[in-house]
Design the sequence.
């Protein structure tokens, strides 16, 4: 379950919504608590939030979906993620992507020329060296703390393209996928491509995850909820394009229909589905949890 970090009313009661969602996900049957990163938006800073959710939870895995390493100094990012791994007792998984918004790069003062898979791989290599305890800076001691997980937290690549998946097989531990319209045939193709790429690279079998927006309820009402969310979240995309994609984006329907979709994705061999809420009502957690038990 993903936190509602991109909702317009997130800060109406301070941090109370984030804490309540985190504790409810930790208490439920969910495997991971997820949250993403944006810069030019009113969502919480992902690395600051990581410390808070580590304190608010004790069981569930914490997954970033996704962080853009090019928006950060890689040594500082490695230190922050290792700290999150320590605070959570080794429960951290890190989804990484190059990012899809020019404005986030501008807001972070980041170089647009680094917005490539090669640029991301270079930063991952630095982070791996930090987590291995190497001295990557001119200092008396290496940059710490060491992560709880040997070699650092699991790294999942947020991409769907064949070329980028193949390039990520050299360093990533798996896939942080995203399905815009819950296309099961496309999911199957991407999962197969990922497994093939890791096999060809001589790597252990990858962890394969996917995600999609969702709203539960009478289909027309749920579809309108998805539409409102996308209008807010996709604020850098012209409105007419958002309106067009909202008709089929994500999942909008009954709990029984969502349970069927999740079962079909599981049959494709997905290790995890990361649901992305399109509203901040915490009742969604209860309703999804009832589908899973």
Sequence:
């Amino acid at each position: 379950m993903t936190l509602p970090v991109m909702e317009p009313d997130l800060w109406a009661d301070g941090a109370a919504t984030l804490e309540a969602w985190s504790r409810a996900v930790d208490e439920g049957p969910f495997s991971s608590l997820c949250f993403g990163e944006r810069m030019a938006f009113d969502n919480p800073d992902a690395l600051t939030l990581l410390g808070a959710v580590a304190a608010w939870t004790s069981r569930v895995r914490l997954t970033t979906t996704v962080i853009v390493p090019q928006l950060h100094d890689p040594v500082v990012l490695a230190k922050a993620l290792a700290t999150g791994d320590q605070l959570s007792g080794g429960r951290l998984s890190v989804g990484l992507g190059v990012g899809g918004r020019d404005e986030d790069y501008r807001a972070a003062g980041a170089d647009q020329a680094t917005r490539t898979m090669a640029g991301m791989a270079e930063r991952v290599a630095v982070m791996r060296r930090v987590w291995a305890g190497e001295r990557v800076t001119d200092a008396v001691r290496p940059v710490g703390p060491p992560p709880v997980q040997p070699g650092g937290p699991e790294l999942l690549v947020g991409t769907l393209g064949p070329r980028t998946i193949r390039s990520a097989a050299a360093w990533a531990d798996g896939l942080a996928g995203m399905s815009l319209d819950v296309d099961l045939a496309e999911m199957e193709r991407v999962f197969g491509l990922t497994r093939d790429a890791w096999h060809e690279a001589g790597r252990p079998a990858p962890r394969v995850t996917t995600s999609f927006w969702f709203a539960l309820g009478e289909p027309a009402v749920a579809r309108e909820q998805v539409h409102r969310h996308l209008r807010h979240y996709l604020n850098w995309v012209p409105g007419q394009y958002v309106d067009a994609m909202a008709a089929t984006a994500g999942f909008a329907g009954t709990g029984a229909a969502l349970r069927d979709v999740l079962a079909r994705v599981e049959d494709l061999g997905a290790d995890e589905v990361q649901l992305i809420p399109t509203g901040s009502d915490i009742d969604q957690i209860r309703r999804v949890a009832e589908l899973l038990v």
